[in-house]
Amino acid sequence: MNENNITKAEEWFEKAKHDFESAKLILEGNGYADTAAVLLQQAMEKYLKGFLIKNGWKLIKTHNLKVLLDEAEMRDNNFERFQDLAGKLTQYYIDEKYPTMTTDIDLEEAKTLCAQVQELLKLIK
Known about the structure:
Elements: H1 3-28, H2 33-54, H3 65-75, H4 83-96, H5 107-124
């Protein structure tokens, strides 16, 4: 692996960690589930981009987790099991940008999504 790619990936992982840890704090405090879902989307996006960059991928600007997950699956088919998670988090992320499109999410669902993102992190690390 290219040392420069590893360094860039670590930068993505650090930013992703901030989003993920912030989402966990919100959920532990029974805060806003929709905000936590957006942070989980951001964490998953950054972790996937870090994984892909580490593996030689050239960065593309996208927030669509399914696109990133498809790229990750080409390198490791174990990512396939996260397709539903990618779809849900991408939809929450998009919906939260437009108040008229907001998708309802409760704390329990957000906590489940958080646990699934945690599983993705285990695969990436």
